[in-house]
Amino acid sequence: MGEAYIVAAARTAGGRKGGRLAGWHPADLAGKVLDNLIDRVGCDPALVEDVIMGCVSQVGEQATNIARNAVLASKLPESVPATSVDRQCGSSQQALHFAAQAVMSGSMDIVIASGVESMTRVPMGSSVVLHAKAGMGVPKSPKMEERYPNIQFSQFVGAEMIAKKYGLSKDELDEFGFSSQSRAIAATQSGAFKDEIVALEITTADGKTELHTVDEGIRFDANLDAIRGVKLLQEGGALTAATSSQICDGASGVMVVNAAGLKTLGVEPLARIHHMTVIGGDPVIMLEAPIPATERALKKAGMSIDDIDLYEVNEAFASVPKAWLQVLGADPDRLNVNGGAIALGHPLGGSGTKLMTTLLNALKARGKRYGLQTMCEGGGLANVTIVERL
Predict the structure, then answer these.
(1) pTM of this prediction?
(2) Quick check: keyword Transferase in the entry (predicted)?
(3) Catalytic residue chosen out of the listed positions 43, 55, 89, 248
(4) Of 27, 114, 302, 342, which alpha carbon lies 20 to 30 A from 70's?
C-alpha cells in the first residue's frame, strides 16, 4: 500500500449567518478554494484526477452535486470529475479519507478533498424542512422507530447528555467557551491564520469593496462574565449559544497525492496521512463517538495520546472536547490551540478540511510532528485522522 501526502491546504475565513460571505454562492465559494490549491502548488489544473467535496445540506444552491458545480465555477477543466459526500459534520474529513484511500491504492495520483457550506443561503435542516412541507415524511423510518421508540435524535440533546454523563458544569463549559474565543483572538492578532486563509472579495453594506480575511465569528470583546450571562439552550442544562459552535459560511480543501503525484508535481509534502479511522456509535447521545474513535485510532496506529503533539477536536458544543479530554487524559494545552468552532464557526460540510488546514499550520508554526483531528457527527459517527508533518 502506498502513502498519502498533503501538499496544499487552504480555507476561507468564516462568515457569520447573513454576514460578510452571504453574497457568495456556495459553488463559487468552493471554487475559489479549488483555485487557491492549484495556485499554491503551481500545477496544471488538468492533473487533478478527482474532487471529493463534503457538504451536508445538499439542496437548493448546494444541490445537483455541489462538487461538480464548484469545479465548473473554478479554473479546473471540464475533464476533472467531482463527487459530493455527506457524513454530516465530518463530510470533508471523510472526503480527505476517500482521497487518501484513492492515492494510496494507486488508482489515482492527485486528488482534491474539500468541503463547503453556506449556512446563510442554505439553512441547516433545509432538506428535511422542504420534504416535510411537501408531505414527503421525515428521515426516521418505521424500522428505525421500532429500534429507537419515541426518541427524537437531536445533537442539542446529545450534547447535554454528554455534559451530564461526564459531570461537566456550566462554569467549566463557559470557561472553555471563553478559552476558544481567547485563543482565536490571539491567533488572529499574531497572524497565525495568515498563510491558510483564501482572501475573498466582498461588497460591504456601504457599497465598498474589500477582502474578507478575518473569521467573522470571533468576539474580540469576549469576556467570561458576559459568557456566563448567556441564556441556557435548555432549561436545567449546561450549554448556551456561547458554548456552542457558530453557524458559519465557509469552504476549505487540501490536495492529496501519492509518491507518483509528488514526482509529477515536483513539490515537497506538508504532511503524511499516518492513520484514518471512522466508527459508528450510539445515535442518541450521538456526539460521544470521537472518544472511542480516538481510542481505536491510537491503538491501530500503535500510539498513545502522549505521542500526539496537537489535537483538533471540533467544538460542536463545549461538552464534546471537554469529555474527550477527560476520558483520553489529554493535555488541554495541545487542544484547539488557535481556538475552535465556538469562536471561528462550524460550516458543517466544510469543517473537516478546515480543521486539517489549521492543524497543519499549527504544527508547522510550533515545529511539531504529529497531529490528530476528530469530529463528532450526526447519527453517532466520528472520523479520526492522524497526520505526520514533514
Answers:
(1) 0.96
(2) yes
(3) 89
(4) 342
